[in-house]
Amino acid sequence: MNFEIDAFGTLVIAVFFLFVGRFLVGKVQFFKNYNLPEPVIGGLVAAITAYILFKFFNISAAFDAKIQNILMLMFFTSVGLGADFVKLKEGGKALFIFLFCVIGFVLVQNAVGMSLAAALGLDPLIGLIVGSITLTGGHGTAGAWGQVLETQHGIQGAIVLGMASATFGLIIGGIAGGPVAKFLIKRHHLADKMTQDAADTQREASLQSAPFEYPKHTRLITANDAVTTLGMFSLCIFVANFMTDFSQDKWFELPTFVWALGMGVIVRNMLEHVFKVSIFDRAIDVFGNASLSLYLSMALLSLKLWLLADLAGPMVTILLVQTLVLILFTAFVTFKIMGKNYDAAVLAAGHCGFGMGATPTAIANIQAVTNTYGPSHKAFLIIPLCGAFFIDIVNAVVIQSIIAIFG
Prior knowledge:
The protein is mainly alpha-helical. The protein has one domain (about 65-405). The protein has 16 helices and two strands. It has a two-stranded parallel sheet with strand order 1-2. Helix 1 (about 5-25) crosses helix 12, helix 8 packs parallel to helix 13 (about 315-335) and helix 10 (about 225-245) packs across helix 11 (about 255-275). Belongs to the glutamate:Na(+) symporter (ESS) (TC 2.A.27) family. It is found in: Cell inner membrane.
């Protein structure tokens, strides 16, 4: 029995499980100690609940995909609208160094997947599916490239395998980041847990913040500010949808979320630096953080965990090895290259998020860590831009090159 849940029902259920996640993180010491994001925990509870209902009662639900897509676009738009060119200079050299780490990991991820697939007697392109196509690329990339591999390269079941692999990655990406950061922070004595008073004092003392940096901080906004900000979001998403249709099958074709992010950057900097219009960052932060939490909750709510049961033994083996490689790479390569300090530990948690999940997961990871140990302005400058924009370009180039060679 399958139930169709409309947009409002989807929103209600997502909010409910988001509160469940918040409650569990507050009450379960393990979740709190390892800085696991509230939307990820709540979403996992929802996914497990859906699995039980399907497995034992043959009950499933189809949730409204449009509202989830809107929230995803709002999240990426907020990344762009928060990208003031003046602030981006603060990322500077560190942004490009971190991008170097990301490129290195994409290559390692594919080398591991393809070599293990070959060793297990599978087509090396299957290793690419359980490599950066799904683990760095996520569900959208899995669907797009899965269709190409099925129709052009004869990899049967590539889409189903890709979706299952991306599901596994999204879960692991949200779970691994906090423990990796905690290990690094404790091992190198980089920070102590903050008391609530210390956290409030630091937030009040901060004169500048990057997007998503203080998700639990109260931001005072007016109705006019909210309406103006909603108008900017709507403009960016409207143009993004138009450009997606216009660029289809052309050399500059890009996913809608990339257009939304790019439009956010253009609108923000045109208004602020050309027309001298003051941008109200607090309203952008409110919309961005709200859409981030709800999107993550809905994404996990919509996961079909029973797809993981369809993974053959070799696929599970490859994914487990990929998990180990991710943890070792972020803990000993990303952390070391980024300076072996507190910022580097937070960046390692973020790298876990989009190295085996998605950019929203990366943001949630670094929010969970900084809520416990203190702010990392550098991480909140670098992770959204690198994870939302550069990683997709890098991944697309790498995948296309490998398929051209091995296809």
